[in-house]
Design brief:
Distance between the termini: 81 Å
Strand order of the largest sheet: 1-2-5
CATH architecture of the largest domain: Sandwich
Number of domains: 2
CATH topology of the largest domain: Immunoglobulin-like
Helix content: 25-40%
Radius of gyration: 29 Å
Shape: elongated
CATH class of the largest domain: Mainly Beta
């Protein structure tokens, strides 16, 4: 019999607390989303000053391989890419660094590398600005 009529005495303290928590949660969520977006943008845009991709490779002989590389970079940014040649067993039979200092945005280069044994695959390990 002591039930309070709905809406007669205003909102309860629980309803006010729930509303404040929703507002604070929405503000923190929007802030977190903004920070993640900002970090992602800077990671994608600033991290691509120098990047490379191996398009194809060819085993020329028992002791030599060639590869076609495409390098995307800022025209003023020199860099280095490292290639590795692997034998069928997975052992490394060759490794070489190639420098790229051309003043172009896109560099397509055919590179050759001597090996200590017959290579069956070539990996592009890394490309980085100097």
């Amino acid at each position: 019999m002591s039930a309070v009529p709905e809406g007669r005495y205003g909102r309860s303290a629980d309803a006010r607390a729930d509303r404040k928590l929703k507002i604070v949660g929405a503000a923190l969520g929007a802030l977190l989303l903004g920070v993640v977006g900002w970090l992602g943008f800077h990671y994608v845009s600033a991290g691509n000053a120098f990047s490379g991709e191996m398009i194809t490779f060819k085993v020329v002989s028992e002791t030599e391989v060639t590869a076609r590389l495409e390098i995307r970079k800022d025209p003023d940014t020199p860099g280095v890419c490292t290639l590795r040649a692997l034998a069928e067993s997975g052992a490394e039979v060759g490794r070489k660094d190639f420098s790229f200092d051309q003043r172009e945005k896109l560099v397509v280069e055919h590179v050759g590398m001597r090996t200590t044994g017959k290579a069956t695959s070539v990996d592009l390990l890394a490309c980085s600005a100097v």
